[in-house]
């Protein structure tokens, strides 16, 4: 895993670099793509698309089976977005928040449940997409773009007044906050998922029979919580970007 980008070109000078183990890359011209991340990400995306198609293939007025599960998930995501963004503004953001939650949730669980290490690669090994810093940084940057877009679409250039509210002294702190939000989102998710995979791998190596099972179950629970935290914070940032100063005072 390499910071700061997923794509490596001859024109980029990384400010910092973090390597954990070996990695499998695709070289396409001057671009160097992180192959193992793309492979597992595509698997998760295809699985989500297939589930959506199967759930919506034969819709019933009284849902059952997979349709019932998917409708419950949709209601859960809709309630999350409504709580964080607001009842008047949440509807256009349900697909984005839902996509974030489902992709992270399935990625985390795929890393915990699928024996990726049985698939041999020329270099490196497959793992959960979210255990790679490139994936979590990309998701965090998408979230940043989303709440900037939300703020500009709601307030126009008046969005910049947030940076000097309630006093111009807040300007450097608000700018710093825009950098820390994606950093905290990406490193929280990356650190927790990578740590969980490392703990399970060490336990399997040391005591390969029953002891790793509780850690694996705990890892599934932690993975679900991390998906919920990421989606909730993303929705909260979007709601905050669209919030008017008068509404903030009302909430306070």
TrEMBL record:
Q: Name one GO molecular function term.
A: proton-transporting ATP synthase activity, rotational mechanism
Enumerate the UniProt keywords alphabetically.
Answer: ATP synthesis, CF(0), Hydrogen ion transport, Ion transport, Membrane, Thylakoid, Transmembrane, Transmembrane helix, Transport
Name of the protein in question = ATP synthase subunit a
Q: Which domain of life is it from?
A: Bacteria
Q: Classify the protein's membrane topology as the record does.
A: Multi-pass membrane protein
Q: InterPro entries recorded for this chain?
A: ATP_syn_F0_a_bact/chloroplast (IPR045082), ATP_synth_F0_asu (IPR000568), ATP_synth_F0_asu_AS (IPR023011), F0_ATP_A_sf (IPR035908)
Q: What does this protein do?
A: Key component of the proton channel; it plays a direct role in the translocation of protons across the membrane.
Under SUPFAM superfamilies, the record lists: F1F0 ATP synthase subunit A
| Gene Ontology CC: one annotated term | plasma membrane-derived thylakoid membrane
The listed locations are: Cell membrane; Cellular thylakoid membrane; Membrane
Q: Does the keyword Nucleus apply?
A: no
Q: Where are the transmembrane segments?
A: 33-54, 93-113, 133-152, 189-211, 217-238
Q: Which gene encodes it?
A: atpB
């Amino acid at each position: 895993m390499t910071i700061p980008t997923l794509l490596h070109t001859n024109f980029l000078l990384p400010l910092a670099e973090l390597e954990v183990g070996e990695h499998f890359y695709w070289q396409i011209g001057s671009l160097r793509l992180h192959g193992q991340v793309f492979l597992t990400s595509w698997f998760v995306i295809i699985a989500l698309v297939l589930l959506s198609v199967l759930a919506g293939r034969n819709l019933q007025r009284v849902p059952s089976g997979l349709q019932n599960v998917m409708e419950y998930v949709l209601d859960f995501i809709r309630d999350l977005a409504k709580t964080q963004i607001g009842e008047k503004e949440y509807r256009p953001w349900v697909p984005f928040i839902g996509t974030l939650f489902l992709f992270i949730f399935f990625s985390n669980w795929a890393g915990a449940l699928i024996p990726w290490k049985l698939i041999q690669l020329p270099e490196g090994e497959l793992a959960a997409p979210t255990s790679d810093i490139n994936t979590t940084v990309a998701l965090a940057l998408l979230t940043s773009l989303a709440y900037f877009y939300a703020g500009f679409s709601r307030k126009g250039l008046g969005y910049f007044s947030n940076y000097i509210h309630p006093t111009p002294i807040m300007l450097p702190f608000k700018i710093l906050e825009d950098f820390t939000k994606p950093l905290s989102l990406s490193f929280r998710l990356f650190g927790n998922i990578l740590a969980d995979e490392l703990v399970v791998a060490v336990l399997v190596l040391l005591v390969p029979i029953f002891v790793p099972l509780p850690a694996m179950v705990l890892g599934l629970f932690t993975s679900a919580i991390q998906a919920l935290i990421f989606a909730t914070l993303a929705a909260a940032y979007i709601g905050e970007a669209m919030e008017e100063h008068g509404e903030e005072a009302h909430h306070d």
